[in-house]
């Protein structure tokens, strides 16, 4: 019976305080919506990619391919051997293919933009010789000779290309020059989606462009009747391993070649995209968690105030027979209802958020088959909403259950648990000292270990602030009050009194803003430090007057450097040719100066040896030498992606310079490590002008020389710095946009707290109005109170952000960050913004307070 009565009390309490219910539910909605949006978005994109990969290697029984992306591929001799042993291995048909990245010009001569989707060239195989599904020619015919191509219909439509169109094409790697091509066919490709560009070449042209003529990229096998795909895979794997052994090659087959069934190829490609989506989803959920954490403080604050306002009501319930369990369950039932409503509405808003994200990514070429709202999204939104709300309401519910019945006889009540803060503050101080020690120790080191120590210190510091913030709020807010007491007089003093009256509540309200601004300052410190490193690297590390790079950081074929060299006013032209290899069982990335020595175009400080790089030499930064344990004169053996050992010798060690590669090999070694068709430029082509050359004239010469490469862009030093900084800015803006969720919730929290505070202080406000306080003065009091809380939260967030951001940047010095750059402009704007936020958040509660009727408020029960 008592349980039924308490349920009715809970429902009536919610129904009679609709505004309070809406504010509380909305704080849950904002947090859960981002969780739901993240789950729906990533599952939708994952499903779309999975449907694409379902068509990959379709009809292929077994595929043999190279393990490394920089590999030359499968030797023709191995293909011939498979063809020769078809009968014994159970192979019905053997088909080969070559592929590589390309850039295709549209009808106006500009590169067709893919929005991040692949743009690839593929060798065409006639249907009677192909294994598996191939592109279908829907208009015109298939390419038959050099200079002819067929294009997928989506790319043809985007580029306004038709059968008979003449255009240009650039291969993304190798030594090839821009090509004049004719579109002879339009195709329908199984894997075509979004901004994908698929260009078909005849087999001979694809072999010339994408291989060295001695290798192929893939070998597709069809099994004979009665032979399963798995049986064929095992037979081919065993045969190729034996073949390598007979040829005397001491190579582990699985390290160089992949022998997989068509189903394994599809699953591996799905796994690769799902790994990326898992990371992306983790990032989105991390920001959702921040929003939920901020929301937790708001919900906790709300229920604490609700319980405080209902002390007499709950005590009366105890007096007429309700047990402690009945009271706590009543409060938790209200929280459960709020959580269910917030979770359900959060799911609806999450679907909208996911729709916006999917629409944006579709415009960038990412595929989508429409929004998919799975069971996982529904469960996660409702579950998170309910759990977060119940946890947030648990402590207030316990407090409510402990209210003695005798409290019902009193005219006023004090919120339970609002006593001494001494123990809480002492614990916070101890944890804070431990956090500071961890931050200092971590900030003195470099690398992953110190970064983890900084992370531990950050967690301890946040916990310390949560515990000690109520005690800190009194002197800090008191100082604000002293500043505003003169211009605002009694109003300023009253606002200060209200702000410190309940330090727990003020601190909890401010902490919502503290957490958001702490992350803003940390991200700002990282971003500004990265930009400072870039500026320093370009200003102090490069001598070049101009740089030539690929748009959107796309690689350029090595032949671009040869074209740049032809510019009459270019004195020195050096590119860094990119390559990959293996050392001591680990993948390493290296480069080789092409066109001259690196010292011709970059400032390099030699610590040992010489910058002159012999053909088999190895020039490394001091950090790379330290990490790998290399000494001057030491022999270092790299393993190419084809499994060949390439001997080099350390001939020079230089001070790490972010403008140049940390590991450079001589050209002779580079050619052994990297096949011609895989040679490409990493970073910019660096150009030093001749003495007395006109800068504008040289720019024009460089633009003319590289125009045919479609994606090449010419920049001076300032433009180059700005282009890199703009990428950092875009990343920071994206992170700030995600953090905006927590800031919105924080503002909502201030509004919520002030609105409930106005209700709580109705009699007091009525008394002030009765003794002559004007409506404008009441509004100003609420404005100032809100501003004090907001600025206090912003100050805490700024100090906490700097305390974490500075040592975090120092730990990243190992990866190239040169020093800490504090974003003072951002911090100043943040503090001013916090004051503005305080005023904005107080607008509605202040108007509500000003409308309080003195007589009704004084006589209200």
TrEMBL record:
<feature type="transmembrane region" description="Helical">
    <location>
        <begin position="821"/>
        <end position="844"/>
    </location>
</feature>
<feature type="transmembrane region" description="Helical">
    <location>
        <begin position="451"/>
        <end position="472"/>
    </location>
</feature>
<keyword id="KW-0175">Coiled coil</keyword>
<protein>
    <submittedName>
        <fullName>FtsX-like permease family protein</fullName>
    </submittedName>
</protein>
<dbReference type="InterPro" id="IPR003838">
    <property type="entry name" value="ABC3_permease_C"/>
</dbReference>
<feature type="coiled-coil region">
    <location>
        <begin position="688"/>
        <end position="715"/>
    </location>
</feature>
<feature type="transmembrane region" description="Helical">
    <location>
        <begin position="279"/>
        <end position="303"/>
    </location>
</feature>
<feature type="transmembrane region" description="Helical">
    <location>
        <begin position="426"/>
        <end position="445"/>
    </location>
</feature>
<feature type="domain" description="ABC3 transporter permease C-terminal">
    <location>
        <begin position="286"/>
        <end position="405"/>
    </location>
</feature>
<feature type="domain" description="MacB-like periplasmic core">
    <location>
        <begin position="22"/>
        <end position="237"/>
    </location>
</feature>
<dbReference type="InterPro" id="IPR025857">
    <property type="entry name" value="MacB_PCD"/>
</dbReference>
<feature type="transmembrane region" description="Helical">
    <location>
        <begin position="331"/>
        <end position="361"/>
    </location>
</feature>
<feature type="transmembrane region" description="Helical">
    <location>
        <begin position="510"/>
        <end position="530"/>
    </location>
</feature>
<dbReference type="Pfam" id="PF02687">
    <property type="entry name" value="FtsX"/>
</dbReference>
<keyword id="KW-0812">Transmembrane</keyword>
<dbReference type="Pfam" id="PF12704">
    <property type="entry name" value="MacB_PCD"/>
</dbReference>
<feature type="transmembrane region" description="Helical">
    <location>
        <begin position="735"/>
        <end position="759"/>
    </location>
</feature>
<feature type="transmembrane region" description="Helical">
    <location>
        <begin position="373"/>
        <end position="395"/>
    </location>
</feature>
<feature type="transmembrane region" description="Helical">
    <location>
        <begin position="788"/>
        <end position="809"/>
    </location>
</feature>
<keyword id="KW-0472">Membrane</keyword>
<feature type="domain" description="ABC3 transporter permease C-terminal">
    <location>
        <begin position="738"/>
        <end position="852"/>
    </location>
</feature>
<feature type="domain" description="MacB-like periplasmic core">
    <location>
        <begin position="506"/>
        <end position="704"/>
    </location>
</feature>
<keyword id="KW-1003">Cell membrane</keyword>
<comment type="similarity">
    <text>Belongs to the ABC-4 integral membrane protein family.</text>
</comment>
<keyword id="KW-1133">Transmembrane helix</keyword>
<dbReference type="InterPro" id="IPR050250">
    <property type="entry name" value="Macrolide_Exporter_MacB"/>
</dbReference>
């Amino acid at each position: 019976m008592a349980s039924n009565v308490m349920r009715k009390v809970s429902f009536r309490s919610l129904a009679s305080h609709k505004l309070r219910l809406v504010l509380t539910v909305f704080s849950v909605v904002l947090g859960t919506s981002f969780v739901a949006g993240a789950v729906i978005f990533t599952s939708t994109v994952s499903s779309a990619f999975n449907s694409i990969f379902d068509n990959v290697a379709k009809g292929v029984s077994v595929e043999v391919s190279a393990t490394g992306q920089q590999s030359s591929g499968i030797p023709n001799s191995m293909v011939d051997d498979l063809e020769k042993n078809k009968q014994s291995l159970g192979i019905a048909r053997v088909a080969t293919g070559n592929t590589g990245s390309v850039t295709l010009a549209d009808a106006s001569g500009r590169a067709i933009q893919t929005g991040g989707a692949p743009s690839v060239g593929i060798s065409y195989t006639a249907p009677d010789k192909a294994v598996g599904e191939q592109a279908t020619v829907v208009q015109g015919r298939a390419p038959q000779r050099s200079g002819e191509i067929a294009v997928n219909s989506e790319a043809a439509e985007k580029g306004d290309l038709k059968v008979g169109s003449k255009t240009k094409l650039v291969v993304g790697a190798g030594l090839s020059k821009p090509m004049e091509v004719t579109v002879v066919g339009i195709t329908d490709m199984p894997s075509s989606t979004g901004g994908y560009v698929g260009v078909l070449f005849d087999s001979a042209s694809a072999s010339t462009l994408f291989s060295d003529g001695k290798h192929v990229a893939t070998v597709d096998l069809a099994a004979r009747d009665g032979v399963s795909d798995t049986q064929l895979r095992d037979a081919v794997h065993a045969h190729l391993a034996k073949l390598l052994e007979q040829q005397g090659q001491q190579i582990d087959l699985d390290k160089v070649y992949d022998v997989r069934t068509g189903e394994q190829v599809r699953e591996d490609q799905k796994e690769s995209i799902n790994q990326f989506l898992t990371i992306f989803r983790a990032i989105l959920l991390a920001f959702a968690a921040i929003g939920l954490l901020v929301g937790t403080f708001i919900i906790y604050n709300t229920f604490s105030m609700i319980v405080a306002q209902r002390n007499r009501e709950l005590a009366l319930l105890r007096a007429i027979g309700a047990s402690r369990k009945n009271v706590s369950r009543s409060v938790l039932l209200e929280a459960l209802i709020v959580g269910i409503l917030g979770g359900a509405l959060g799911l609806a808003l999450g679907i909208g958020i996911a729709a916006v994200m999917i629409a944006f990514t579709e415009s960038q070429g990412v595929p989508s088959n429409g929004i998919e709202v799975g069971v996982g999204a529904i469960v996660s939104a409702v579950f998170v909403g309910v759990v977060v709300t119940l946890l947030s309401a648990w402590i207030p519910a316990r407090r409510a259950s402990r209210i003695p019945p005798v409290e019902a006889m009193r005219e006023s009540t004090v919120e339970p648990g609002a006593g001494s803060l001494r123990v809480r503050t002492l614990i916070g101080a101890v944890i804070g000292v431990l956090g500071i020690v961890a931050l200092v120790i971590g900030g003195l080191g470099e690398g992953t270990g110190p970064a983890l120590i900084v992370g531990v210190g950050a967690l301890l510091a946040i916990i310390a602030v949560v515990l000690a913030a109520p005690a800190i709020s009194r002197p800090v807010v008191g100082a604000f009050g002293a500043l505003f007491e003169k211009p605002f007089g009694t109003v300023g003093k009253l606002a200060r009194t209200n702000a410190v009256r309940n330090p727990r509540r003020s601190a909890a309200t401010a902490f919502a803003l503290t957490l958001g601004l702490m992350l803003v300052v940390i991200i700002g410190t990282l971003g500004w430090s990265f930009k400072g490193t870039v500026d320093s690297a370009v200003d102090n590390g490069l001598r070049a007057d101009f740089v030539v790079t690929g748009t959107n950081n796309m690689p350029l074929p090595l032949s671009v450097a040869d074209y740049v060299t032809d510019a009459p006013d270019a004195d020195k032209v050096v590119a860094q040719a990119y390559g990959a290899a293996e050392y001591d069982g680990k993948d390493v990335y290296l480069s080789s100066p092409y066109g001259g020595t690196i010292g011709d175009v970059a400032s390099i400080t030699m610590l040992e040896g010489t910058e002159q790089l012999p053909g088999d030499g190895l020039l490394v930064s001091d950090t790379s030498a330290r990490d790998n344990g290399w000494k001057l004169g030491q022999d270092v053996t790299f393993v190419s992606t084809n499994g060949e050992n390439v001997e080099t010798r350390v001939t020079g060690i230089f001070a790490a310079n972010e403008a140049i590669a940390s590991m450079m090999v001589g050209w002779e070694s580079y050619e052994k490590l990297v096949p011609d068709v895989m040679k490409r430029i990493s970073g910019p082509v660096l150009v030093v002008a001749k003495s007395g050359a006109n800068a504008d004239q040289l720019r024009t010469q460089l633009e003319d020389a590289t125009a045919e490469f479609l994606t090449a862009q010419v920049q001076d030093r300032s433009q180059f710095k700005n282009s890199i900084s703009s990428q950092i800015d875009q990343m920071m803006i994206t992170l700030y946009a995600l953090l905006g969720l927590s800031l919105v919730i924080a503002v909502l929290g201030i509004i919520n707290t002030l609105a409930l505070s106005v209700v709580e202080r109705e009699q007091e406000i009525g008394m002030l109005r009765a003794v002559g306080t004007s409506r404008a003065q009441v509004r100003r009091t609420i404005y100032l109170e809100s501003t004090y809380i907001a600025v206090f939260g912003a100050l805490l967030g700024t100090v906490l952000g700097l305390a974490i951001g500075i040592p975090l940047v120092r730990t990243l010095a190992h990866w190239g960050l040169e020093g800490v750059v504090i974003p003072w402009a951002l911090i100043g704007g943040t503090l001013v913004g916090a004051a503005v936020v305080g005023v904005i958040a107080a607008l509605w509660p202040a108007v509500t307070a000003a409308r309080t009727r003195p007589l009704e408020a004084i006589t209200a029960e």
